[in-house]
Amino acid sequence: MTEVSRVVAPNPGPYTGPGTNTWIVGAGPVVVVIDPGPDDDAHLAALNKRLSGKTVGVVLVTHGHPDHLPLAERFARQFQATVQRYPELGDGDIVRAGTLNLTALYTPGHSADHLCFLLAEDRAIFTGDLVLGQGSSMVTYPEGDVAAYLRSLDRLAALQPRILFPGHWDPVTEAAAKIAEYKKHRLEREAQILAEVNRGGGTAPELTRRVYGELDDKLMVAAEMTLRAHLKKLVDEGVVRENGEVYQASVI
Ligand SMILES: [Zn+2]
Hints:
The protein is of the alpha+beta class. The chain is built from six helices and 13 strands. The strands form three sheets. The chain has a five-stranded mixed β-sheet. The protein has a five-stranded mixed β-sheet with strand order 6-7-8-9-10, with no helix packed on it. Strands 11-13-12 form a three-stranded antiparallel β-sheet. β9, α3 and β10 form a beta-alpha-beta unit. α3 packs antiparallel against α4, α4 crosses α6 and α5 packs across α6. It is elongated, with a radius of gyration of 19 Å.
């Protein structure tokens, strides 16, 4: 088994849980680091301390969101390592560093630039924000894509991973069950949104309140974004139509 450890970035919050997981893959002397996280001096110092003399061969980034990417270049420069992410890194590309081989999996949905990284010999997948250790992942709008998100979950499931190392919260050993739970949650949410639209049209903020109930402001922003992403899929599929700001059931 490849040694995997993490340093949690000091950026806890409603979207990031206890903070972003920066993963260190391999026992050294050459390691791969995934998602250096926010550009934060204390996090950089904590990472360097944990590495204690190991060399970073490659820095990988699952996606360009501000809780995953900003420290990457500054961190990598210390080791003259390259930062690799989508689109320079594409589906199926293999990243080699020391004795490690990681395969990039293009897994859009949460964001359009999302990659997961597979450690094939261990059947371990670094899932970024596609699957989290806890709660559900948001689908951003307009760059996210619910249909793509569901396909990305199927893709992960087909690889039959043994363990998931998510971008936030703890590793997941019940990988198949967790992926199935995520898919079920998204499909249930979609059914709920469609039922609400069929009950009577509304704007995205109105529908968000009807579907999610009262949430605090920050979570409401995430909920509305995910709802808009769901509505886009339903509009693309022709079951919902847009009438100005209002979403209505399609009448055939
Ligand atoms: Zn994140």
